[in-house]
Fold:
Amino acid sequence: MNDNIRGEPTVYLNGDWLPLSEAKVSVLDRGFIFGDGIYEVLPVYQRKPFRLQSHLTRLQRSLTAIRIRPPMAEAQWAELFDNLIQRNESDDQFLYLQVTRGVAKRDHGFPNPEVPPTVFAMSSPFQRPSATLRNAGVAVVSLPDERWLHCDIKSTSLLGNVLARQSAIDRGAPEAVMFRDGFLTEGSASNIWMVRDGALHAPLKNHLILEGIRYGLLQELAEQHQIPVHIRRIRQQELTQADELLMTSATKEVLPIVTLDQRPVGRGPHAGKPGPIYAKIRQAYDQLIDAL
Ligand code: PDD
Structure:
């Protein structure tokens, strides 16, 4: 059932399956006008979605948080994703789903009467982080977190994240690490982890960060490998004393951070290089994918 109409990715828009270039939404869509929507990004390995249930749970949570009536039940989302995977070519894909409050005359208040939400889903070929990248690690720069106070909602309003990411790129780094009131929050599109004395440290799961699906996953993997996990407020200065720093996201999986503001992360033989806790977590993550 691999349509791949005109060699383009096949996407889903409001009940239709179309080539990507034919999928169009109105300029009055509230996603376009206000960024009034939510999204999900989920990885697919060998045509199997990874951690599907966690993504579905977060999707429902985001919809509820912004008061969009869920247009589908969990089983229907799962079926839509399955369909999308089968209609596209790659075995490894990442799926992007966006739901907005729909199309209505421009007015900040919700459309009254209610209008159907816009539902858009697409698949892209997933180039997993290469061995070169995993071995080299990534550079990050520190930036103030200037976003709103509901970063726990996976909202399409990403201006703060976009500007942070671009500032990092302008300074030669692929990712930013953000701090609010002197404490670590997260990356522009990733969660950030600190390793100190053999333990993993992560910021509190609250309204100041998006709880990544890999956040819970890393906790599980750490537990399985007897790595203690401390969820707490982490001061900005602590990162300069870290043994290792890691970043996680659907598309970056888990990667070692090797420089922070151009200074090597860690000490001794591992300074500026991926460390042993990263190696353990990385191996465990790969095993999970292989076992799918
Ligand atoms: N972003 N924090 C932010 C701000 C993010 O945008 C993301 C992921 C994460 C990690 O979440 P997860 O482990 O569920 O991917 C944390 C996705 C990949 C994106 O916007 O493309």
The longest helix spans residues 276-290. Residues 45 and 264 are 33 Å apart (CA to CA). Residues 41, 161, 186, 189-191, 210, 212-214, 248-251 surround N-(5'-phosphopyridoxyl)-D-alanine (CB under 6 Å).
